[in-house]
């Protein structure tokens, strides 16, 4: 399989490995505890664990893209903001 079309750097591989690991972890969690405890959060939408993972990943992507577009600085601050965003989503959404 030829994957030379993509720049596979260590950060790129770590990113995709993290996404795959997150999805596998949620799959195993769902196997042992079915249902995902759907709940209505502050956004007033019914979400499960998978929905909250998707919302946190999508929001994190926008945080990083916005930071790169507006600040063009190191990515430590958006990483911290994205972690807080993910904790917020899993806790309150």
UniProtKB/TrEMBL annotation:
Keywords attached to this entry: Membrane, Transmembrane, Transmembrane helix
Top-level taxonomic group: Bacteria
InterPro entries, sorted: DUF2160_TM
Transmembrane intervals: 12-32, 53-69, 75-92
Protein name per its UniProtKB record: DUF2160 domain-containing protein
Organism name: Sneathiella sedimenti
Lineage: Bacteria, Pseudomonadati, Pseudomonadota, Alphaproteobacteria, Sneathiellales
């Amino acid at each position: 399989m030829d994957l030379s079309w993509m720049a596979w750097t260590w950060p790129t591989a770590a990113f995709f490995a993290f996404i795959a690991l997150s999805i596998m972890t949620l799959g195993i969690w769902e196997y042992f505890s079915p249902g995902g405890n759907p709940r209505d959060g502050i956004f007033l939408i019914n979400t499960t664990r998978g929905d909250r993972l998707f919302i946190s990943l999508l929001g994190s992507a926008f945080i990083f893209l916005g930071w790169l577009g507006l600040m063009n600085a190191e990515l430590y601050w958006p990483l911290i903001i994205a972690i807080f965003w993910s904790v917020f989503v899993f806790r309150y959404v």
